[in-house]
Amino acid sequence: MAIITEEPDPPPPPPKTKPNSKTKKTTSPPPSAASTTTKSNTTTTNPFHFWFYFTIVVSLIVLFFISISSLYPQDPKTWFLNLPPVLRLHYSKGRTIKVQTAPNYPQVEVFSIQEGPTNSDSHVLFVHGLGCSSFAFHSILKSLGHKNVHAVAIDLPGSGFSDKSVVVVEENVGGNGGFGGLWKVYSDIKEKGLFWGFDQLIEQGYVNHEENEIRVLKKESVKAIELGGEEMGRVLGQVVDSMGLAPVDLVLHDSALGLSANWISENQGLVRSVVVLDAVPSGTALPLWALEMPVLRDVTLGFRFVFKKVLAKCCGELFGGPEAEAHRILLKGRDGRRAVAGMGKKLNFSFDLAEWSGLDGVKGLPMRVIWSGGFSEEWSDKGRQVADVLPQVTLVTHSGGRWPQEHNAEEVAESIYDFVSSLPKSTKTTVEEQIPEHIQKMIDEAKSGDHHHHHGHGGHDRHEHSHGHGHGHAHAHAGYMDAYGLGQGWAM
């Protein structure tokens, strides 16, 4: 009997693979937790995210400051209506004078305020520094007025209530290339009509256009008023002449010393004395960089507490809230910041005080230095240096800062009064023109005829003649006053 056994089937042969097949796999260990964390961190630190958020933040900051600036109206009427009561009162007491800062520029209005009798022996004119205004001297003026001193303070063009910009007409000869040609076509159409070219084309067969015609294009632009030494001298001369202040006692504050120096040396007959009130040959108390840098200037002038901090640091520690706010409004309103910043660039930083004091038109002038003694030790040393340079000068200190302040106004006024009252009385000299002989003979004959006329008609005729003469003199005097604008307002 045969035994049959079953053997298991042999395993199937492995599948044949192509020699260059890409199905070959390499085994690798499973990824660990550390590698997973590193991969996720690499994905989250994308530099694009940083710059995206940075751009968003910067844009929001810029938008914020632009919106802050837009909150302050630039319209003059709205600006005046929003003035605080202290500035409204100051403005109501003043008047304007029209002056010309440059030969080819239009006249601008200069705000002025005065106290005391106009027939006083002393005519004191206060000239403020950059960033300041006549408002800083209103209490000093009042104190001097009570002492029978004619005290005047002005807002320089570009400051306070004076004009801060001017419309200038600029001429452009020949046009601006292609734009100039387009502007010419527009000017011709505006001047001669829309169908002028078609009419010429139909009548003549061509348009009468001169290729070589030189055209002068005029363009109006608004520019901030920027005073230098020459412009300052022109303003001072017109103010002194129009208000009849000569010989004047000048009180120069802060940067006004450097700006007025040339005019003083060239007009000795118009100046009786000079008071240097916390004034240095160059530089300003209020830092100009705070008015020039785009973001910083918006912060400084846009927030009350920031501007008050700047005043306390640079100009005086005891500025009250309403006082500091008035200075900020006057500096910011009607784009005064741009005018002050432009004037700062025209300061003569190479001005030599010792050389100036030795000039023939200066060395004989009586002078006094009134200086802050409590602002800082460094500033007190500066005052002693200025007093040592100027010849025959007395140094008097006060308790305020580099800008006049309310709490020491009486103190400063007393120092100025002691100085100007000690000076000899001013006499206005008049130059008499020599009358020609034939005219003088006619005048003598007329007087002789009047003499016989009076003898024939008695006292009644004498009364009528006297009355007529006085009436004519009054008319002449009134005409002189009106010519200089000393009626309802002063004008040039």
Automatic annotation (TrEMBL):
Residues 124-414 form the AB hydrolase-1 domain. The keyword Ion transport does not apply. Residues 465-476 have a biased composition (Basic residues). Residues 1-41, 447-476 are annotated as: Disordered. Keywords: Membrane, Transmembrane, Transmembrane helix. It comes from the Eukaryota. The chain crosses the membrane at residues 50-72. It holds the Pfam family Abhydrolase_6. Signal peptide: none annotated. GO terms for molecular function: hydrolase activity. InterPro entries: AB_hydrolase_1, AB_hydrolase_fold. PANTHER family: EPOXIDE HYDROLASE. This is Protein AUXIN RESPONSE 4. The lineage of its organism: Eukaryota, Viridiplantae, Streptophyta, Embryophyta, Tracheophyta.
